[in-house]
Amino acid sequence: MATSQGEDSPLLGANTEDRASISSSSVRKPSSEEEDGPSSPPDFGNVEDDVLPEESVLGRNIDWKSAYIIAISRVIGSGIFAVPGVILTAVGSIGLSLSIWILGAVVVACGLAVSLEYGCMLPRSGGDKVYLEFTYPRPRFFASTMIAVQAVLLGFTASNCIIFSQYVHFVFDVEARDLSKKALAVGLLTVITIIHGVWYRAGIRIQNFLGWIKVGLVVFMVFAALYVVIVRPEQKDAENTALKIQSWEGLWEGSDWNLGTIATSLFKVFYSYAGLSNLNNVMNEVKDPVRTLKSVSLTALVTACLLYLLANLAYVAVVPIEEIKQSGQLVSALFFERTFGPNVGKRFLPLAVALSAAGNVMVVTFSLARLNQEIARAGFLPFSRYLSSSKPFNAPMGGLIVHYIPSFLVIVLPPSSEVYSFILEVEGYPGQVFALATSIGLIWLRYKRPDLKRPFKASIPAVIFRIILCFCLLAAPFFPPSHPKPGGLFYATYAIVGVGILVFGVLYWLVWTVILPRLGHYRLEEKPDVLDDGTAITVLTRVPDVE
């Protein structure tokens, strides 16, 4: 990863008057001389105009500290408190588990470099939506439709709601029945949606507070592990812990080297690091967006990698390996119980983990609601005018509602026993397709559009490495596992569901933009408009074909 020597401003450096006149999209037709290919301006407007910095009607309220929390609080959630146990259970050994976390961190760093180059070059809310629309303007509306389908069908935050519910049940020794777990998870989702939809600034303050609690909790956990290892080396069941492993071979004992197993574990690692690009979705509300994005993203990357490595070492240093494998998502609860006893360890500290999961739900809801609002502003959702508006509470209530519905369904419908792992896997698979598209597009833009100003430049070898790994991860789930679970879901279910969602997006685009316009003898055109609250939107209108 490298930062260019140019100043921290995007693209071609339009002047203030130009920026003031920018709407969410324009409708000027390109000339016939413009080139075909991913780098050409969109059919419906001047691409440079579309990607200059744009300020939200909510204003720029996110400073560096809040931006850092939006990134790191998304990372430190169920990923650090629950996923290590799930991965160790899947791969079978400490050595392979730690290797997957290290490999995942390298891949995530490569992906973050891509997001940084795009985000600094195109500093607007929407993340991949903006980047793919910029890079792949043709077929017309295709990139926008695929992002809209992915955001609506997979843009949920159910996993941390489930972790919150499981840890609360654990703390109070309540029997974790399916109905009570789901009811508590839905309750958390509902309360957070209301907070962000009604009390915008209060929601930011609450998620900042919970974010710092999370960072402090992980640091405390690492020091607690050092205390156990140094001060109390002799503990119950110590013969079963990783501390008694004396040989290199012992680290790898029980490893499952199946490609499908490794791929699903990597998807869980990617999920755990997903928040590093969270800030890209809310750039319209960030103060000094380009400079803040660079410094926050790199700081959060270093913080996350260090905390994940130390957390994994802390778990295996304190909790017997077999207990970790049996704990599932409750590995951190066992860690605290073994370190501090059944009172403080089982009550207070796991409750802090539950609050951390709630903080994660807050930042994910905050950012994905903005992504949904950007999709609505572009005219790709039903009732776009209402979903784009920030009325009545000066908050993106429409985007929050679009986020709430799939999250609610994912919590309620699948069986609780397998829902957590399934969510992580089904979110990760289509994400690799979009990661592949943005990575290839980045190299394409370097070649076709060298004139674009890039305040940050990703390393080309890192981008190529990411592309190769994306192909591997897309194929790996279809290799059968070495030890399939009896009675569980089919091993490639999540990949099939992911492919199904992508196919649905293609068919939806084909019907909506190609078949119906031909049958109805009309064409879709974009018309810029401004809502009463000042939000610039695009209205898709049907224009009859001239005979």
Give a brief description.
The chain has 22 helices and four strands. A hairpin with a 5-residue loop joins strand 3 (522-530) and strand 4. Helix 3 packs parallel to helix 14 and helix 9 packs antiparallel against helix 20.
Explain what you see.
By secondary structure, the protein is mainly α. It has a two-stranded antiparallel sheet. Helix 8 runs antiparallel to helix 17 and helix 8 crosses helix 19. It is globular and about 80 Å long.
End-to-end gap: 54 Å
Mean pLDDT: 77
Helix-strand string:
EHHHHHHHHHHHHHHHHHHHHEHHEE
Fraction of helical residues: 55-70%
Number of helices: 22
- Unreliable spans: 3-7, 9-51, 236-243
Strands of the largest sheet, in order across it?
1-2
The structure class reads mainly alpha
Count of DSSP strands? 4
Beta-strand percentage range? under 5%
Largest sheet: 2 strands, antiparallel
Shape: globular
What gyration radius follows from the Cα positions, in whole Å? Answer: 24 Å
- Counting copies of identical and different chains, the oligomeric state is single chain
Task: List descriptors.
547 residues, mainly alpha, two-stranded antiparallel sheet, globular, disordered N terminus
Secondary structure topology:
Blueprint: E1 2-3, H1 16-20, H2 47-50, H3 64-75, H4 78-81, H5 83-91, H6 94-121, H7 128-135, H8 142-154, H9 158-171, H10 178-198, H11 200-230, H12 248-251, H13 259-272, H14 289-318, H15 321-327, H16 331-340, H17 344-377, H18 384-388, H19 397-412, H20 416-448, E2 456-457, H21 460-475, H22 493-520, E3 522-530, E4 536-544
Antiparallel strand pairs: 1-2, 3-4
